[in-house]
Amino acid sequence: MAEPAKKSGSENRQTTARLTIRLMPEQRQQIDEWANAAGLATGSYARARLFTGPQPRPVRLPSVERKTLAQFLAWLGRLNGNVYQISRALNFGEGHDRKDLADALKEITELRNAVLAALGREAV
């Protein structure tokens, strides 16, 4: 007898049943600490502890450093947008110091590439 075809789609679409339990605040805090120490989301940690055998891919939480670097990268993106607006104004003859703007753009690019390297991503 042939095995039924596997379901297509992501784990999120396949896992639809939910379980809710009541915990004391200190119990929830303890579970959150254990999950954080394992680098997992609380639900992924609970599944890993409750069930044996192959598990769905766990949801890993980014480290604090990665979160900070990602926020910094977003800030650099906004800064880059501001510099772009300044460069547009310069192109239309509203201001001067093109060399300063070029130096600032170069520094932003270097910072961006350093953050991307720290995140383990390729510079574009």
How are the SSEs placed, and which strands pair?
Layout: H1 11-14, H2 25-38, H3 42-50, H4 64-91, H5 98-118
Give a written overview of the molecule:
By secondary structure, the protein is mainly α. The chain is 61% helix and 0% strand. The chain folds into two domains: 21-61, no CATH class; 64-118. The chain has helices spanning 11-14, 25-38, 42-50, 64-91, 98-118. Helix 2 packs across helix 3 (42-50) and helix 4 packs antiparallel against helix 5 (98-118). It is elongated.
* Radius of gyration using CA atoms only: 24 Å
Indicate how many domains the architecture comprises: 2
Q: Based on the structure, what is the oligomeric state of the protein chains? A: single chain
Beta-strand content: under 5%
How are helices and strands ordered from N to C? HHHHH
Distance between the first and last residues' Cα = 51 Å
Mean pLDDT: 77
Low-confidence stretches: none
What is the share of helical residues?
Answer: 55-70%
Gross geometry: elongated
Count every helix, treating DSSP H or I runs of 4 or more residues as helices: 5
Number of strands: 0
What is the SS-derived class?
A: mainly alpha
